[in-house]
Amino acid sequence: MIVRQILIWARDGLNKFRLPSARVISPRTDFPAPRLFSIPTCSPKRMRHLAVSALPVLLLFILTRPAQAIELDTVLANMDRASDAYQGMRAQVSWMKYTDIVEDKSTEEGIIKVLKDKKGQVNLLIEFQKPYPYFVSIHGTKVEIYRPRIATVEEYDVSKSKDTLEQALLLGFGTAGRFLSKHYDLELAGEEDAAGEATVKLKLVPKTEKMRESMSGLEMWISKSQWQPVQQKLYGPNPGDYRLYTYTDISLNPPLKESALRLKIPRKVKRVFPQR
Fold it and tell me: Which residue from 113, 229, 235, 265 has the highest number of Cβ atoms inside 10 Å of its Cβ?
C-alpha cells in the first residue's frame, strides 16, 4: 500500500502532495504472510485413486531392496533351537543314487517316519513305494530290511559301527548346529530354493580322515521356516559319485507312537543274517 502511494505522488507531482488520512494498518490484509508452499486439496475419491496408483511402485521398491545376508552363526543357532524341540517327523522321501563311471541314476521314493525316544536315540521306518515296495527299519543298533517281493527280512547288527550310525542319523534328523560345527568344516553357500522351500545352503567337509574315507563332503539345504535339513547331497570317495536325499511335505513332531515304527512282518517271511 505504501509503495502504491509513492507511485501516485511521483505521477501527480509534489505540488499536489497530500498526506493520506491516517488509518489502522491491518497486518492480515496489508502485509499478508508469504506462502512458502501450497497444499492441494483432494477429494476422498481422488486420494484413494492416488493410493492405489502408488501401491505397485511401493511393492516394487520393497521387493527389489537387497536382502540382508544371513550369518553362519545365526543359521547354526537357529538349528540348535530347532534340534532341542525336535521329537520326530513324517515326510515324503526321495533317495537318488548316481554312479559316475557308468552314468547310472536310480531313485527310490516313499514315506519316512522318525521318532526320538526318551534317551535321545533316533529310530526310523522308511516305507519305500517306488520303484518297488520294501521297508527299512532302524531301532538302536539293529537294522532290518524287509522285501515283500521275496518274503525275506535281512537283519544287521551295527553295534560295531554305532558311532557312524549315530552320526548319520543326527546329520539328517534333529540336526543341531553344534553337532555340525564339531564334526565338519562349514561354509555358508548362500540362499536358494530346494525341495519346494526357501533354504540356506551349507557346504560341509568331515574333519577326520576316517569320515572322509566314506564321504568326501556334502551339501545341506536348511529350511528357513523349520531350520532342519530338507535336502542333502553326499559325495562318495569316488569322484563324481553322490547320493541326493530330499524330504517334502514334512510334518515335525507328529503324534507318532513307537509301535508305528515297527515292521509288520507276516509269519511265513524268512529272516536272514547276512553278517553271519
Answer: 229
Domain count, the chain: 1
CA atoms within 13 A on the CB side of 142: 9
Task: Count Cβ atoms below 10 Å from residue 78 Cβ, excluding itself.
Answer: 19
Q: Are strands 229-235 and 217-223 parallel, antiparallel or unpaired?
A: antiparallel
Q: How confident is the prediction along the chain (276 residues), in pLDDT tens digits per residue?
A: 433 443 343 344 434 434 344 444 444 444 454 444 444 555 666 656 555 565 665 555 455 544 567 899 999 999 999 999 999 999 999 999 999 999 999 999 999 999 988 888 889 999 999 999 999 999 988 999 999 999 999 999 988 887 788 778 888 899 999 999 999 999 999 999 999 999 999 999 999 998 898 899 999 999 999 999 999 999 999 989 999 999 999 999 999 988 899 999 998 999 999 988
Would 108 be classed as within a structural domain? yes
Please name the residue that has the C-alpha cell 538349528: 79
Neighbours of 152 (CB within 10 A): 15
DSSP state of 26: P
Using DSSP's 3-state secondary structure scheme, residue 212 falls into helix
3-state SS class at 231: strand
Maximum Cα–Cα distance across the chain: 138
Q: State the residue range of the domain holding 161.
A: 74-262
- CATH no. for residue 118? 2.50.20.10
Asked whether residue 36 is domain-assigned, the answer is: no
What's the length of the chain? 276
